[in-house]
């Protein structure tokens, strides 16, 4: 089993941390996005969409982090709570996994890209109006975490135990911290959830976020929920 | 089993057509989006995100069309090809289902909304520059259908047989037709795929698209792949 990834990519981190935590062995195939390795001719054979992460299971190449997390859970028969086999409990996990694409994923990523990544990469000025728009969308998503997903003091997003939904969400919510925004500030339910998730995923969670931490230190980011 | 839906919503149509085709009985709960029924107080109890479709299976409410299609496939044990139980074949279907959110879904919907829906609803002028941006993204997605998903003359998106991925994709690709754009024009592989999918899903496919056809006729839309 090969894993192609870059730890600057939040879905890559989710798959990496999940595999480390559940002790799924893999061959380490780093793809340096900053050096454009995903645009090399050879990489089209691995992923024609030129994204990470990708797994290659003896020639069976699979893209899309959510599909990968499901595949790994089933293939390695990991502890049931990660991706429950029960019809309804699984559907609840699926519900978050599908919801997040056009909410957590796009909103946090767009805020990060427009506030931080694009200006840094291309030397362009921050378009404050556009950033504000993405910020507001991200705020709506964060409010929905507290008022819908974690409603009634649910310990995890989809039930009483941690699932792949929590892993994916936590990694995504790290992204704005590099741009100086702590999503957990003033959101006690979300912050308590974050601590629970990290406690279960560590030491791999922190290890998988070393590069994120380096970027935060270098560019004036914030450590999320530092006061917890 | 109740189904809350509006046939103007493409994921609603996918679930509706799937249930009709696989003969899953449901109680018909129409939600009129144009009249804002999804913003009524009662609807927050059905879906706090105020979207359609939603199923209610004896009190178990589930949102997100992709999660719903998976749930229905498993609960009713429909013919295997719709959502295959084999690990790798299922992963291929999952791969499209996850990919489509930030590609087919968002790009076709944004083009439709900015070219057609918002100007019609709010009486605003079409922002041609923005429409062009969304059009170009949609074109990239459509090219990826032909060069990646349907590569090597694959009859369906994820293999030799129709799956829920094809149902979802076909319904999404109807949306631009209401804004006057035929996604199948000049794309023979995609057009042949569309015909195969419709042949299997009819008469329910056409029935589920009656309201789309009415909008096309009223506002100068085009019938997709009419020359086929």
TrEMBL record, chains A, B:
Pfam families: GST_C (PF00043), GST_N (PF02798)
EC number: 2.5.1.18
Signal sequence segment: none
Keywords noted in UniProt: Cytoplasm, Transferase
Domain called GST C-terminal: residue spans: 86-218
GO CC field: cytoplasm
Positions of the GST N-terminal domain: 1-80
CDD domains: GST_C_Theta, GST_N_Theta
Entry superkingdom: Eukaryota
Subcellular location: Cytoplasm
Reactions the enzyme catalyzes: RX + glutathione = an S-substituted glutathione + a halide anion + H(+)
GO terms, molecular function: glutathione transferase activity
UniProt GO BP: glutathione metabolic process
Quaternary data: Homodimer.
UniProt record similarity statement: Belongs to the GST superfamily. Theta family.
Name listed for the protein in its UniProt record: glutathione transferase
């Amino acid at each position: 089993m090969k894993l192609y990834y870059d730890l600057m990519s939040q879905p890559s981190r989710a798959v990496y941390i999940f595999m480390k935590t559940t002790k799924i062995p893999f061959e380490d195939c780093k793809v340096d996005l900053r050096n454009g390795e995903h645009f090399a001719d050879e990489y089209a054979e691995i992923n024609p969409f030129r994204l990470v992460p990708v797994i290659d299971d003896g020639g069976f190449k699979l893209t899309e982090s959510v599909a990968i997390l499901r595949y790994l859970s089933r293939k390695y028969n990991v502890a049931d709570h990660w991706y429950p086999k029960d019809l309804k409990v699984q559907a609840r996990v699926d519900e978050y996994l599908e919801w997040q694409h056009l909410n957590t994923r796009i909103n946090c990523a767009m805020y990060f890209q427009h506030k931080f990544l694009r200006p840094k990469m291309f030397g362009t000025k921050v378009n404050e109006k556009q950033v504000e728009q993405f910020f507001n969308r991200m705020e709506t998503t964060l409010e929905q975490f507290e008022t819908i997903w974690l409603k009634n003091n649910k310990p995890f997003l989809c039930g009483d135990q941690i699932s792949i939904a929590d892993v994916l969400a936590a990694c995504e919510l790290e992204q704005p911290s590099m741009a100086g925004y702590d999503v957990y500030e003033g959101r006690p339910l979300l912050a308590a959830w974050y601590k629970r998730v990290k406690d279960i995923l560590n030491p791999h969670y922190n290890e998988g976020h070393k590069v994120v931490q380096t970027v935060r230190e270098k560019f004036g980011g914030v450590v999320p929920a530092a006061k917890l």
